[in-house]
Amino acid sequence: MDRAVSVSETSSSARSALAPNVRAPAPARNEALTASFGSPRNFLNNRFVYAVISQRARGLSIGVNLNPDKYCNFNCLYCEVNRDEPVQDRKVNLRVLSAELQSLLTITFQGRLREFPGFHHTPEELLQLKSVALSGNGEPTLSPSFMEVVNEVIHIRSLGRFPFFKIVLITNASGLDSPEVRGGLSTFTADDEIWVKLEAGTQAYLDRVNRANLTLKKIMSNILLIARERPVVIQSLFPLIDGEDPPSDEIEEYVHRLKELQAAGAQISLVQVYSAHRPPHRPTCGHLPLKVLSRIVQRVREVTGLKAEVF
User: Is domain 12-310 given the CATH code 3.40.50.410 in the classification?
Assistant: First the structure.
């Protein structure tokens, strides 16, 4: 059985960022790599576009915030977004967003990101752009600007001013069945990806952790709708809640939900199992120990045969 990969392990953050068979860096270098992950999003004085060193992207991700109003139909215990703070923008200004994205892409591809606070000591291998992520401070598929933002990002890519970059939609799956979202996703290439959240095996656990304004059945249905058409990455964050691990029977239910998706024809390229790396807005949530995350991955592999990794 393949060993789980985790940025929490000694030297593992370095291995996640480097190609297979590359020799692990020295311990001091490992510390620099590890410290780069889990840092807050850096908006660089932008309103809609930010930069983040992401474990799951294995390096630099440029984020596009489709929800400056912080609207989300999930209220996850582990969420880092403070919705009590006032917002600067209630909706996306497409002209500003476009200018910010092109500016940050220019800075990135010119190798100038290290000039900015928060990136001075980031290892070079983590400053290579891995993706442009449609994400932000809420659920992007619920944004009224979803279609126009997707079209603008694809337009910028098509101009040829920058090397080709992958687009990743990070979603809780709740809006994947809307005609506007499906229309936007139809413009994705085979190189682009959809990362969907599935973090519960039962409605009770979904209500406890994600506190979603929809049912687990609906989430499963929407994941299946897309995953029958193209491969998806499943994202599963399991937090430590009040010092307690997720119940073992809940994990078994979660694994069987994955199995059900498979049996119904879902194409799942990867299951990402991880915990809260950035400080959550609610202090009751913590980072689940690596041994627990690794056991979850082991069960995913044993029951489903899917590729699964710890981040």
Answer: no
